[in-house]
Amino acid sequence: EAGVAQSPRYKIIEKRQSVAFWCNPISGHATLYWYQQILGQGPKLLIQFQNNGVVDDSQLPKDRFSAERLKGVDSTLKIQPAKLEDSAVYLCASSLEHTDSYEQYFGPGTRLTVT
Amino acid sequence: GEDVEQSLFLSVREGDSSVINCTYTDSSSTYLYWYKQEPGAGLQLLTYIFSNMDMKQDQRLTVLLNKKDKHLSLRIADTQTGDSAIYFCAEQSSASKIIFGSGTRLSIRP
Questions:
Q1: How far is the C-alpha of B23 from the C-alpha of B39, rounded, in Å?
Q2: Do the Cβ atoms of A104 and B48 come within 8 Å?
Q3: Which of A8, A48, A84, B66 could hold B71 in an S-S bridge, CB 3.0 to 4.6 Å?
Q4: CB contact under 8 A, B88 and A101
């Protein structure tokens, strides 16, 4: 079974530029999560999708971050414009059912550096 | 608010047992988890415990939960070099959101 795929693995941009990350969850997984992991900290949930609907985006900085999962499969996370404090690893995870969220499978992450 | 705390570092000798501790704040947490993160990789679920249990054992891993003190621990028996990683404690809050601690970096001495 293929795992959660993410691309790119690394990205370096200047502040005020835009960036987009892509995630392909495990086939059949209805729930998709985006986390931000700042160096030395644990992951922080940004947004959670159930199929193509948003379940929780309470910690997403909506003035600059956006995410979509149009067909209920792949998802993209965008930052526009980026700030220095956005430097982090962005992790995507998926699970089969919303109520079984303990079975989250994580991708390798995208490491973003904002200069 | 919801918070999960862990010590930052732990160093153990190869072959000894490792005990990683965690405290959490949400008394209505349903599940508590331990994740492992190796360098450059995502998080891997190691084990979890439901809040009505006191202990769970899975091969070399033993999870202890003290719900009264909101304290969770992970014991790794016969620690090996492959156990070197960052270990994250996490709680599933009443809002069905998972809150992660900052992680404990486990290093193994020969």
A1: 24
A2: no
A3: B66
A4: no
CB atoms within 10 A of CB B39: 7
- Cβ–Cβ below 8 Å for A45 and B98: yes
Instruction: Provide the shortest C-alpha distance from residue B94 to chain A (in Å).
Output: 12
Distances (CA, A) of A53 to A30, A75, B37: 10, 11, 29
The CA-based dihedral angle spanning residues A57, A12, A106, A39, taken in that order and rounded to the nearest 10 degrees: -80
The CA-based diameter of chain B, rounded to the nearest angstrom, is 43
Query: Six-digit token pair at A47?
Result: 């947004």
Residue of chain A nearest B39, judged by CA positions: A108
Q: For residue A34, give the 3-state DSSP assignment.
A: strand
Say which of B4, B42, B90 has its CB closest to residue A107. Answer: B42
Whether a cis peptide bond, with omega within 30° of 0, leads into A108 is no
Q: Are A106 and B42 in contact (CB under 8 A)?
A: yes
B-contacting residues of A 41-100, CB under 8 Å? 41-45, 48, 56, 91, 93, 98-99
User: Using one digit for the tens of pLDDT, what is the confidence trace for A60-90?
Assistant: 999 999 999 988 899 999 999 999 999 999 9
Say if strands B98-100 and B85-92 run parallel, antiparallel, or are unpaired.
antiparallel
CA atoms within 13 A on the CB side of A6: 28
Flag whether residue A40 sits within 8 Å of chain B, measured between CB atoms.
yes
Rounded to an integer, what distance in angstroms lies between the CA atom of residue B88 and that of residue A63? 30
Q: Is A31 at the interface with chain B, CB within 8 A?
A: no
